[in-house]
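Exercise 3.2. Students should predict the tertiary structure of the chain below and write it as structure tokens, then compare their answer with the key that follows.

Predict this chain's 3D structure.
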Amino acid sequence: MIITRQTFKKAERLCSRKIITGLFGAGNVIYTPYFRVLWIKTDNKSPYPVRVAFMVPKKVFRRAITRNLLKRRMREAYRKNKNILYDFLNSENISIALIVIFRKNTAADYQSMEPAVKEMLERVKTEILSDSIKC
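Answer key:
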């Protein structure tokens, strides 16, 4: 059994304004009870198969403290469970960019956030699989 470190490095974060604008313009959308996920296939320039950004709308959560808390919880749950998506993408040799937008009206605790992130990652995996079958 190989034990890998569960990290979330700077290179895994989605910072490119060009890719982010492309995601909002022509990205695929997945809705889960907690999240709205925008994703698009990218070229393999990054050493990581997924580049991800997390967002919490200011319109719903006016206080920056709450928005930052929710983003920290989303990042932590993603960091612990990203291997679900990484293993699949590495085997298929696919690279994607994700934007995860929180859509609940109330702040969620970590115990409810982690299963929601797992569900979201599984949904993204099945969407990518069905998209690659179509092409």
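Discussion points: The mean pLDDT is 90. The chain is about 45% helix and 20% strand.
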